[in-house]
């Protein structure tokens, strides 16, 4: 713990402060990056990128670290505010950044750059987005209520589909069992 790579000198102060606070929070847990990855939905290599300032973490990663560290309420909210300030000024090409990785599976959160300028797509509220857009890819059991409904436009669609499929399978099993046993 505490054996972190030095942060690049040209990082904006907001990013530097945010990453330093994340490092302190992670060190306070006493967990290795592997153990932290096992306790959150984020891999060891993702935490390495976040804690070395080569990639901004998604908001959910910050919330997951706060949960693991036992922070709640105002303490956890301070880290979210630091994240918001840092993401707004995070360098587009982070120092020491590796080439872009292959597309991540759905269980790995990713922060993706959002196009800037007059041709940039509008945000839902009508203003142009800045910086990085958060792509929520947390496990379904840990998602904020309503996330799936907003995405698909219908409440509980996938869960309802699974329930109907399970009910149909049970019904077919019961009918086949009744016919086989006479």
List keywords for this structure.
mainly alpha, 7 helices, 50% helix
Main sheet: which strands, in order across?
1-2
Radius of gyration: 21 Å
Per DSSP, the total helix count is 7
Largest sheet: 2 strands, antiparallel
Percent strand = under 5%
Helicity range:
40-55%
User: How many beta-strand segments?
Assistant: 2
Overall 3D shape: elongated
Category by helix and strand content: mainly alpha
Overall pLDDT score:
75
Order of helices and strands: HHHHHEEHH
Oligomeric description of these chains? single chain
> In angstroms, what separates the terminal alpha carbons?
68 Å
Low-confidence stretches: 94-99, 123-129
Description:
It is a single chain. The protein is mostly helical and about 180 residues long. Helices cover about 50% and strands about 5% of the residues. Residues about 95-100 and about 125-130 have low confidence and may be disordered.
Tell me the layout of helices and strands.
Elements: H1 13-29, H2 33-39, H3 44-51, H4 59-69, H5 73-89, E1 110-113, E2 132-135, H6 147-152, H7 157-181
Antiparallel strand pairs: 1-2
Helix pairs in contact: 1-4, 1-5, 2-3, 4-5
Short description:
With 182 residues, the chain is mainly α. It has helices spanning 13-29, 33-39, 44-51, 59-69, 73-89, 147-152, 157-181, and strands spanning 110-113, 132-135. The model is unreliable at 94-99 and 123-129 (pLDDT under 50).
């Amino acid at each position: 713990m505490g054996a972190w790579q030095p942060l690049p000198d040209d990082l904006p102060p907001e990013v530097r402060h945010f990453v330093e606070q994340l490092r302190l929070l992670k060190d306070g847990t006493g967990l290795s990056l592997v153990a932290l990855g096992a306790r959150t939905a984020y891999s060891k290599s993702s935490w390495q990128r976040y804690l070395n300032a080569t990639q901004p973490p998604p908001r959910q990663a910050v919330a997951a670290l706060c949960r693991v560290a036992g922070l709640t309420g105002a303490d956890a909210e301070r880290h979210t505010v630091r994240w918001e300030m840092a993401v707004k000024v995070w360098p587009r090409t982070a120092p020491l950044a590796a080439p872009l990785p292959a597309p991540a599976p759905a269980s790995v959160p990713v922060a993706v750059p959002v196009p800037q300028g007059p041709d940039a797509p509008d945000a839902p509220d009508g203003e142009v987005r800045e910086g990085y857009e958060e792509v929520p890819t947390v496990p379904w059991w840990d998602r904020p209520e309503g996330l799936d409904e907003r995405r698909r436009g219908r409440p509980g669609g996938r869960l309802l589909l699974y329930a109907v499929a399970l009910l149909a399978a049970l019904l077919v099993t019961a009918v086949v069992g009744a016919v086989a046993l006479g």
